Amino acid sequence: MESTIISNNPVESRYGDSKFFGLFALFITFIVFGGFALNWLSNPSHLGRVTLWTGMHGGFSAAWYLLLLTQIKLASKGNYSTHKIFGKLSVFLVLGILLTGSIMAYEFYHRLAGFGVFNPEDAQARLRAGSFLGGAFLQWLIFLVLYVLGILNIKNPAHHKRFMIAAAIQMMPEGLNRVIHLLSIPGYSMFLFMFSVYLILMFYDWKVHGRLYASTALSFVLFCLLVLTMHTIFKWQAWGDWSVKMISSI
Questions:
Q1: Is the pTM of this model over 0.85?
Q2: Does residue 132 contact residue 173 with C-beta atoms inside 8 Å?
Q3: Tens of pLDDT along 136-152?
């Protein structure tokens, strides 16, 4: 079956993959960047709330997406020496994303705690805070795991690029949730959209390569784990109480 689906011309197959993944990564980047752009255009006053750490986090994240597009382009042209050099740069960008993101979340929590939204004396507020903190840090943890898996599979291009694409999908909520908010549609629409993005990737692999790659399957399972955890554990009062206690002690 697989031999009837896969192109007999390896050059043609590689070109098709490069074109698909290039457009796929461009679409993901457009959604993320577009979410922030629409939010700022609709609410220009929000730009005044951007702190140093928020700006740095946004800068590192934007650079990482642009680097992803560049890496796909370099690989498609066979320029692997430059691809390897830029790959080392991605390590610093990922560390920057995680460090500034953690500080940003810490600042955001204390700002909302001051407004009473995350009031540590209110059980419901602690529940909201726990949901925010759990979702944010688990999202970044899974992003890190997918990135590391991509690095570990650097000698296997098929898995390497799928793990890197999955890492990009994992960070989509940072821009996508702003679109969801502006359109005033249910929050679960974000997860349905990301689910659809994974379906497109899996459909492409099945249609073109006649298989579902383990790297994509594992990435999808981790995404489902995030969704499940956000709708179970992170909505428990015990989690909210514990997470608020932990962040308040820092």
A1: yes
A2: no
A3: 999 999 999 999 999 99
